[in-house]
Amino acid sequence: MSQLRLFKALIADDEPLSRGYLRALAELDDRFEVVAVCDSGFTAAEHADGSPLDVVFLDVRMPGLDGFQALAKMQGCNPLVVFVTAYSDYAVRAYDCGAFDYVTKPIDPARFAETLNRLSDRLLERDAAQAGAATYAARPVPSFQASEEKRVLAGVRQDVVFSESEIEVIESQGNYVSVRINGKSVLVRQSLDSFCRLLDSPSFMQVHRSFVVNLVYVRAIRYEKSGTAELDLAGGFVVPVSRRHRSAVAELLRSTLSREP
Questions:
Q1: According to the UniProt entry, which residues carry 4-aspartylphosphate (predicted)?
Q2: Does residue 29 fall inside a structural domain?
Q3: DSSP category for residue 241
Q4: Cis bond leading into 202, ω under 30°?
Q5: pTM (2 decimals)?
Q6: Strands 80-85, 55-58: pairing kind
Q7: Which listed site, 2, 8, 67, 170, has its alpha carbon 20 to 30 Å from 214?
């Protein structure tokens, strides 16, 4: 997967030597551009307000706003956050706040290079998924065509006549599945696996252990700081994407985009 842009990074540390060393390490990697170096949490949060940032490297203990307080004020720009600190006892709190990584000082250059590699992979994945979702968003939602095979879905409360293109999402609910068709849910006594074996279209994809979606209806993908993601479907339905399936979803959306004329 090729990189089409430089990833923009911000560094915040109240120690001049640490700021300089961290910047030097980051700039050894030509995939990243350090666009701001801040000496406090306050200036970091101020700079992040309205700025397009991909990555923020944050110290924990800083005067004024500490790293966690600064992060709380950066929710609007949604960067990946790496805490870089001399204190190991904040790691659990950092990951609870959605940190991408936690690097302790003194910084091991090899360890930091590994972090940059993982950051690049995640950011490329996010770019590809967002681009692919944008392509889907530009497409009209398919409507029923007479040539499509119609089937009868034996629901618990009622039978429904449908075609595969009308299925938006399938959700596992124990021994049942809830099938969302044209904005309405139908409960069927069948497992997720057995129901999906009846589907022929390649546009169906499992994105979570409990959800299979028709990717034609994807309108947007949002990444969470925890590492998970959500798909926004036409009609306002939101489906979680698990960490296990995140890369596959991003790759499929990217490959679909690359096939566009």
A1: 59
A2: yes
A3: E
A4: no
A5: 0.56
A6: parallel
A7: 2
